Amino acid sequence: DVQLVESGGGSAQTGGSLRLSCAFSGPTYERGCMGWFRQTPGKERSPVAVIDMNRSTYYADSVQGRFTISKGGALHLQMDSLKPEDTAMYYCAAGEGHCPDFRYWGQGTQVTVS
C-alpha cells in the first residue's frame, strides 16, 4: 500500500519559518502529481502548493513568494514569512499521473502561527 507520512509541523511566530516533509512509500513515487493542502475547522481543504510530473509548480495566491514546494526523496514545503492565517492542518497528497491526481493522502500535521 502507498503511505504518506507528514512531519515538521508545530508552532511558529509570525514571520518565522517551518519546513514540512512528506515521506512516501511505493514504487511510483516521485513520478506522479504531488501537493500540499491545508484545512481549518469549518472550511474545505484547499491546495497550497502543487508540483506536477514535469516539475511545474502551482501556488495559492496567499502563499506565493513565501512557500516553496520541492521533491527529492520526499516531498517538502518550505514555509517562510509565516502569518497567523497560515494556521491549519496541512496534508500531503500524491497520485500516479498528472495533476490533479491526488488519490493518496497523509494524515496531516498541524501548523500554528501566533
Task: Describe what this molecule looks like in 3D.
The protein is mostly beta strands and 114 residues long. 0% of the residues lie in helices and 46% in strands. The chain is built from no helices and eleven strands. Strands 2, 4, 5, 6, 9, 10 and 11 form a seven-stranded mixed beta sheet that branches. The protein has a four-stranded antiparallel beta sheet with strand order 1-3-8-7, with no helix packed on it. A hairpin with a 6-residue loop joins strand 4 (34-39) and strand 5. The radius of gyration is 13 Å and the shape is globular. It starts with a strand and ends with a strand. The model has no long low-confidence stretch (mean pLDDT 93).
How are the elements arranged and paired?
Elements: E1 4-7, E2 10-12, E3 18-24, E4 34-39, E5 46-51, E6 57-59, E7 67-71, E8 75-79, E9 88-94, E10 104-105, E11 109-113
Parallel strand pairs: 2-11
Antiparallel strand pairs: 1-3, 3-8, 4-5, 4-9, 5-6, 7-8, 9-10, 9-11
